[in-house]
Structures are given as C-alpha cells and as structure tokens.
Write a structure and sequence with these properties.
Layout lengths: L3 H6 L1 E6 L2 E6 L3 E4 L9 E7 L9 E9 L7 H16 L5 E11 L2 E13 L7 E13 L4 E10 H15 L3 E2 L1
Antiparallel strand pairs: 1-2, 2-10, 3-4, 4-5, 5-9, 6-7, 7-8, 8-9
Amino acid sequence: MFNMRMAEMDRCCFSTYGVYIEHPLDWRIFLDPKKGFNRQTGFIRIEDYVPKKGAQVSMSVNWARADSDSDSFPETYYQNLQSQYGRQLKKAPHKIESMEIIHQNGQKAAYIVSGYWGAQKLFHKGDEQIKALQLAFYDDGSSRAVVGTVMGHIAAVEEQEPYLKELLLTLKCI
C-alpha cells in the first residue's frame, strides 16, 4: 500500500489526445496495444503495482466517440451500468452503492460507487470483494464519452477513498 501523504505531494499527470488525469508519481502506466489508442478512442491503466504482491488499486481511463450530450449522458451511463452489471455479474453479488450527478469542469458527470464479489485477474486469482469508483461524462467539445474508474481491494479503496476520488476529479478534456 502506498503512503497517501507522500502520494499527495508526488503527483504527476497523464495527458494525451486532450484527456488529462493526475496520478501518484510512482504508479505505473500501461497501454494496451490490442485496444484503440487515438483521439477518438483510447484506454490506459495506471496502477500502484507492488512487486510480488501485484496491484492493490488500479485506475483506468477510457474515452470513445459517442452520440450524446453532456446533460443527458450521466443518467444514461448510470442506467447502462446497472444493465451491464445485471448481465455480466448475474451470479456474483454486486451493488451500486451510490450515484450522484456532479458538475465537473462546467458539465454534468456521474460519480458512481459500486462493489462486487468476483474473480478480478488484475488483483488476485480467486474471488474477492472489489470496490469501484467511477466518474463518467460527455465532452461536448470533442464529442467523446470519458470514463475514469478506480478499482481495487475493498479495504485499500475504502482506506484511501477521499484521495482516490480527488484523483478521479482531476479527469478532464483539455
């Protein structure tokens, strides 16, 4: 687990194709060559990788061209997430703990806290409880949906939740 006080001081940013987010300086950045990575669509993962232990917390950022608008996108995203959880996690207990519409950089965004039990290859090989924080918005200027997700072991995410939310709230299109 990383030292939150040190991470707050040692922050840097990742910015590409007009998508910007801050992250702890010592977290590793991963690009997936199998997924698109250009102005229209992209995916990055930034995590607190610890040798021999793996990641305890991972942050991802996705962006994609979409036909939407910034006013209706947060509610539509939330409904789609509920449906997706229902389909993909039928056998695994899951729960959307909260969803709120917030104002992020002058536009509406959905901030969603959820959790589920399941095998999460990123963190562990067996079933365990995962907690996720998400920020999703539509950027009218670039016509893209942008989603930032922080997920990890429930204890790690809950211990650092205010700081992790603060990181997610740095997500923006510039």
